[in-house]
Design goal:
This protein has two helices and seven strands. By secondary structure, the protein is an alpha+beta fold. The longest helix is centred in the N-terminal third of the chain and has 17 residues. The relative contact order is 0.20. The structure holds nickel (II) ion. Nickel (II) ion (NI) binds next to helix 2.
């Protein structure tokens, strides 16, 4: 396993649409392992492959309930809403208020190529949305609520 460099805001890689994974092999397992290690090292709760410069539809998430490895994830349903502060390992200390669904159902493949469905709520739902957005070149900054006016 190895820690990979995290691509930072301003790099075009973060704006690309990622390609679906077709073959789950040793290289993909190495990517998953490295992504998890990189996420933990950086103190994040999620990381998407483009953030380590790989344009594949792969994300890792751990909101404190164990590691989730999602290959070709898709949000198949969502409901409710939540508004809260969000940040991103690619965007330094910037934190913004973002409104997301409260519940999402995500379908993906696991590292063995088996189809899985995850019912997520609260932080995990937020995290799934944030990471899956990365696979389409969307950053949380794009979805941020307008800053409150201060007087
Ligand atoms: Ni992010």
């Amino acid at each position: 396993m190895a820690i990979r460099n995290i691509v930072k805001l301003g790099d075009d890689t973060l704006r690309k649409t990622c390609k679906p994974v077709k073959i789950i092999d040793k290289r993909l397992h190495a990517l998953l392992d490295d992504m998890a290690q990189t996420m933990y090292e950086a103190g994040g709760v999620g990381l998407a492959a483009p953030q380590v410069g790989v344009l594949k539809r792969v994300v890792v998430i751990d909101v404190g309930k164990g590691l989730l490895e999602l290959i070709n994830p898709e949000i198949v349903s969502s409901s409710g809403s939540q508004t809260g502060e969000e940040g991103c390992l690619s965007c330094g200390d910037v934190r913004k208020s973002v409104t997301r669904p409260m519940h999402v159902e995500v379908r993906a493949l696991d590292r063995n190529g088996k189809g899985i469905t995850i019912k997520a709520e609260e932080l995990l739902a937020r995290c799934c949305c944030h990471e899956i957005d990365h696979l389409d070149g969307i950053l949380f900054l794009d979805r941020a609520n307008p800053d409150e006016e201060r007087s």
